[in-house]
């Protein structure tokens, strides 16, 4: 039986693609282990899948001044020694890393022990953790054609992001019943991420009466961002966050308004959902969501509205344009080269583990 170590953490985006690979890895009878931080979000997300979890010390390498910059390098060094010991004990055939700072010592320890390492970069330009890991990688997977320019040519593979296959098996009728919707009007799904997006929420609610003339609305508005004054409005439902029923909501949805996190937009691509992307402002991030969104726009998958330019009139106009031209966006997504991400990545894993 082949053994694989998965690693990645710090945010859900560094874990969910690993989770998406689990069913196929189990089908192929891999002995799967996970290395993450002692108490990071990855530990909680991996727990339901009942695979061995190994915690190591983790530190964040920052581009800005922080007192922790003086202590975290020692945590990273400790993490390397712990990962090195685990790899010598487990003797994996291959390591797959989804990134995040906890993955850096694992990837480096993998190379130190001559274990093939495959890493995955979700965003258009590599984050700091993956930049540090690149030299230790055998192959580097990515989501965007433009990313290939930033990667070593002999290692880079355009794969797209593995998504949870259950999202493809939603039940429209179950979603209609869950939302109390009819078949009379198309459905818009608004996704602001688990923490919500205040600017998106505000814009959607400002034009809600006009939207409800032609659409039904499912609004995932984020924790603590429900608007009690809108409860009970016919054709509009709001939730802080949805997990179990999300696949059904996607099945019912005609168009989507979303932030532009890499995993989220790759799910929209796999589901062929026409979408408007409102990326997180560069003032609140390193600008990766803007780059992600613009790539999808160039490929004909999305309409992009930058947060600084978001107005009620513009949003309403673009929603109507998207719905009218939806078949063109669906066709572009169906013809994408990134439709078989899981199998492409699994083939790389199989090849690496057979050395």
UniProtKB/TrEMBL annotation:
Topology of this chain in the membrane: Peripheral membrane protein
Chemical reaction(s) catalysed: di-trans,octa-cis-undecaprenyl diphospho-N-acetyl-alpha-D-muramoyl-L-alanyl-D-glutamyl-meso-2,6-diaminopimeloyl-D-alanyl-D-alanine + UDP-N-acetyl-alpha-D-glucosamine = di-trans,octa-cis-undecaprenyl diphospho-[N-acetyl-alpha-D-glucosaminyl-(1->4)]-N-acetyl-alpha-D-muramoyl-L-alanyl-D-glutamyl-meso-2,6-diaminopimeloyl-D-alanyl-D-alanine + UDP + H(+)
Cell location: Cell membrane
Database matches in Pfam families: Glyco_tran_28_C (PF04101), Glyco_transf_28 (PF03033)
Name of the featured protein: UDP-N-acetylglucosamine--N-acetylmuramyl-(pentapeptide) pyrophosphoryl-undecaprenol N-acetylglucosamine transferase
Principal location class: membrane
Organism annotation: Sellimonas caecigallum
Function noted in UniProt: Cell wall formation. Catalyzes the transfer of a GlcNAc subunit on undecaprenyl-pyrophosphoryl-MurNAc-pentapeptide (lipid intermediate I) to form undecaprenyl-pyrophosphoryl-MurNAc-(pentapeptide)GlcNAc (lipid intermediate II).
PANTHER family per record: UDP-N-ACETYLGLUCOSAMINE--N-ACETYLMURAMYL-(PENTAPEPTIDE) PYROPHOSPHORYL-UNDECAPRENOL N-ACETYLGLUCOSAMINE TRANSFERASE, UDP-N-ACETYLGLUCOSAMINE--N-ACETYLMURAMYL-(PENTAPEPTIDE) PYROPHOSPHORYL-UNDECAPRENOL N-ACETYLGLUCOSAMINE TRANSFERASE 1
Cited InterPro entries: GlcNAc_MurG, Glyco_trans_28_C, GlycoTrans_28_N
Ranges for domain Glycosyltransferase family 28 N-terminal: 4-140
Domain Glycosyl transferase family 28 C-terminal: 187-343
Enzyme Commission number(s): 2.4.1.227
Binding site for UDP-N-acetyl-alpha-D-glucosamine: 11-13, 164, 194, 289
Keywords assigned by UniProt, alphabetized: Cell cycle, Cell division, Cell membrane, Cell shape, Cell wall biogenesis/degradation, Glycosyltransferase, Membrane, Peptidoglycan synthesis, Transferase
Keyword Transmembrane: no
Annotated metabolic or biological route of this protein: Cell wall biogenesis; peptidoglycan biosynthesis
């Amino acid at each position: 039986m082949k053994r694989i170590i998965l690693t990645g953490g710090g945010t859900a985006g560094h874990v969910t693609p690993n989770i998406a690979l689990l069913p196929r890895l189990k089908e192929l009878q891999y002995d799967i282990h996970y290395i993450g931080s002692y108490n990071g979000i990855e530990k909680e997300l991996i727990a339901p899948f009942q695979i061995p979890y190994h915690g190591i010390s983790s530190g964040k390498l920052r581009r800005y001044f922080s007192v922790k910059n003086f202590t975290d390098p020692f945590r990273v060094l400790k993490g390397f020694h712990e990962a090195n010991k685990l790899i010598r004990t487990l003797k994996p055939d291959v390591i797959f890393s989804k990134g995040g700072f906890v993955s850096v010592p694992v990837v480096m320890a993998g190379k130190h022990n001559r274990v093939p390492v495959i890493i995955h970069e979700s965003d258009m330009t590599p984050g700091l953790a993956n930049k540090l890991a690149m030299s230790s990688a055998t192959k580097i997977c990515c989501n965007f054609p433009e990313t290939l320019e930033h990667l070593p040519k002999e290692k880079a593979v355009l794969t797209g992001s593995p998504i949870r296959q259950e999202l493809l098996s939603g039940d429209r009728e179950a979603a209609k019943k869950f939302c109390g919707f009819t078949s009379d009007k198309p459905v818009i799904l608004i996704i602001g991420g688990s923490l919500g997006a205040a600017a998106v929420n505000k814009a959607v609610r400002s034009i809600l009466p006009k939207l409800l003339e032609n659409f039904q609305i499912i609004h995932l508005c984020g924790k603590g961002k429900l608007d009690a004054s809108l409860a009970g409005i016919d054709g509009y439902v709001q939730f802080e966050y949805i997990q179990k029923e999300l696949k059904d909501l996607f099945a019912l949805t005609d168009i989507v308004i979303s932030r532009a996190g890499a995993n989220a937009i790759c799910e929209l691509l796999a589901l062929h959902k026409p979408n408007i992307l409102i990326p997180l402002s560069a003032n609140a991030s390193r600008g990766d969501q803007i780059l992600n969104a613009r790539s999808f726009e160039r490929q004909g998958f999305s309409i992009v509205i930058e947060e600084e330019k978001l107005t009620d009139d513009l949003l309403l106009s673009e929603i109507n344009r998207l719905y009218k031209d939806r078949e063109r966006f669906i066709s572009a997504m169906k013809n994408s080269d990134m439709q078989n991400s899981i199998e492409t990545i699994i083939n790389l894993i199989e090849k690496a583990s057979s050395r």
